[in-house]
Design a protein that fits this description.
Number of strands: 16
CATH architecture of the largest domain: 3-Layer(aba) Sandwich
Structural class: alpha/beta
Largest sheet: 8 strands, mixed
CATH topology of the largest domain: Alkaline Phosphatase, subunit A
Shape: globular
Low-confidence stretches: 1-47, 49-77, 82-119
Number of domains: 3
CATH superfamily of the largest domain: Alkaline Phosphatase, subunit A
């Protein structure tokens, strides 16, 4: 069974790379100005510097590959190759890179002298890789010392990673509605797992289909009944890690995501641009199963000999610093903490399986990207990796998401945009980008009109991929979350989020909280009753109300 990255040799599904790395870089820009060879030389210099930085880093893998691939085998896939560079010896790594550089430079220069305008005439494709319950630091490139995500690390090295990216609502169904509509919950009307109220013709899949795109969705939906008729290719399933197929076999949900995504790419009309959303169920738990996280057998060797660090605020003391309507065993966040994290042994088992699911998703992303590369369309495809919400790994004595703490609302975002200049590759951005920004970013990238109903902003201004001026980007945002079942189960929570301060409001209990997060990153020292911060509280309370009204305005105007 595929779907698990074990070694570069094991991935026999990946054919020889049709173009060298440098050919790919030379042909990657959709808009080229100036001397093409100078652009190529700048890219070569950039990647040489990046390789040296990689070789200077300590190995993030627990052990090197037992059977390292030959230099020839590294050409299988750029994604496997970059993952391998992270744990190969520096001497061999330099030799391989030299061979790649010398072997491909002449063909790259030749390609550089060709017609540079052809790529810009081709409509851009879109692939959204959308994981579940995956917080911002569940990435090797984000500094996580344990989890192995070589594909996504490589994707970040060819694009931009947004380190302060957040969701406007941290729960599966609502956040997905925000993704499709580009709207806050208060505007799209989905306050749980029902269909959103925004017309389909105002969502990014609907608009792209109306503009001649072949549109697909595979995996989790969670916004009422899946509207298969609105897609050219649609497969919806979630809720379990293992599925019994019609022939009696069992398939893992991530493998099923992979199979369906590759089927979409194989069957798509070659004369149409396409948009594919791959909505993974992993790393979501199987809530009704005592095991919670059920990875594939091939993954079980991963993380066996690793001790997962326990967060410093995963304590009863931190739990009891929460408001009393959260800090009780009737709260669902605490219930799920007991399911997953309430003993040291359970914590290790659960987190290792959680990370195994993440590595499986990473591997499937690699196979999708490899297929795009082999079809010759990767360099004309906007690739986005992000997730629906963050996740407590026992911080505050909680599990899951929902509340406005950083662990819950911060999620990864990586964008690989063919229009992005080489000097932006591997860079990070610290602006507040949001889940509602993805739809307008996608539409702007393909040249489609962004409807007035979308409240998010085109993020490409942050990496210079369009002609617009960046202007003032947001420095704060409004967060909202609905009541699920009742106020004692999952209460409504709202917040005004800034990088240095955060204001919480729990409307069902008329409770405010104030945190100076630049000094209190764990959000444990509530300053709401401190007279020294009364002015700060009053200012944020007023601004919170303004942004709350804007979120319900149903318009970006």
């Amino acid at each position: 069974m595929g779907g698990v990255l074990v070694s570069a040799e094991d991935d026999e599904t990946q054919a020889a790379e049709p173009r060298s790395m440098m050919n790919k870089m030379a042909n990657g820009d959709r808009k080229v100005s100036g001397n093409r060879i100078e652009v190529l030389a700048a890219k070569v210099h950039f990647y040489c510097e990046k390789l040296l930085l990689y070789l200077a880093r300590p190995c993030p893998w627990s052990s090197p590959l037992e059977k390292p691939p030959s230099c020839q085998n590294i050409m299988i896939s750029s994604w496997c190759r970059k993952a391998w560079f992270r744990h190969v010896s520096p001497a061999c790594g330099l030799s391989v890179f030299a061979a790649l550089l010398v072997g491909s430079l002449s063909s790259s220069v030749s390609a550089a002298s060709g017609d540079t305008d052809k790529a810009s005439d081709v409509p851009m494709n879109v692939v959204v890789l959308y994981a579940d319950d995956w917080r911002h630091d569940t990435l090797g490139v984000a500094g996580n010392p344990v989890v192995k995500t070589p594909t996504l690390d490589a994707l970040a090295s060819e694009g931009m990673r947004f380190t302060e990216n957040c969701v406007t609502t941290s729960i599966c169904g609502v956040s997905r509605a925000c993704l499709f509509t580009g709207q806050w919950m208060s505007s799209h009307g989905c306050d749980g797992f029902k269909p959103f109220e925004t017309p389909w013709q105002q969502t990014y899949p609907g608009i792209l289909r109306d503009n001649g795109y072949y549109v697909g969705h595979v995996g989790k939906w969670h916004n009422g009944k899946f509207p298969g008729e609105k897609f050219d290719f649609g497969r919806s399933y979630y809720g379990r890690h293992w599925f019994k197929m019609p022939d009696g076999s069992k398939v893992h949900v991530t493998q099923r995501n992979e199979n369906d995504a590759l089927e979409f790419l194989g069957k798509r009309p070659k004369d149409q641009p396409f948009c594919l959303t791959v909505a993974f169920f992993a790393t979501h738990a199987e809530d009704g199963n005592p095991q919670q996280f059920l990875p594939q057998p091939e993954s079980m060797h991963l993380y066996q000999d690793v001790e997962i660090p326990v967060p410093s605020n995963a304590t009863d003391e931190s739990f009891h610093r929460l408001p009393e309507f959260v800090a009780n065993d009737g709260n669902e966040g605490r219930n799920r903490y007991h399911w997953r994290f309430d003993t040291p042994e359970k914590y290790q088992i659960m987190m290792k399986n959680y990370y195994r699911l993440a590595t499986e998703v990473d591997s499937t992303c690699g196979r999708i990207l490899t297929e795009l590369e082999e079809q010759g369309v990767l360099d004309n495809t906007l690739v986005i990796f992000t997730t629906d919400n963050g996740y407590y790994h026992a911080e505050h004595g909680l599990a899951d998401k929902w509340y406005p703490h950083q662990e819950s609302i911060r999620v990864p975002l990586i964008i690989r945009d063919p229009r992005m200049s080489a000097d932006k590759h591997g860079s990070t951005n610290e602006d507040f980008t949001l889940s509602v920004d993805l739809a307008p970013t996608i539409l702007s990238a393909v040249g489609a009109e962004v409807p007035e109903s979308m409240q998010g902003r085109d993020m490409s201004v942050l990496y210079g991929a369009n002609d617009a001026e960046q202007g003032d980007w947001r420095e704060e945002f409004f967060y909202e979350h609905p009541t699920i079942r009742d106020k004692n189960f999952i209460p409504t929570s709202e917040a005004l989020v800034r990088k240095d301060w955060k204001y919480f409001y729990w409307p069902e209990f008329d409770r405010e909280q104030l945190f100076h997060i630049s000094e209190d990153p764990h959000e444990e020292n509530d300053l709401v009753n401190d007279p020294a911060h009364a002015k700060q509280l009053a200012e944020m309370r007023a601004r919170f109300q303004e942004l709350k009204r804007e979120a319900a305005s149903k318009s970006n105007g």
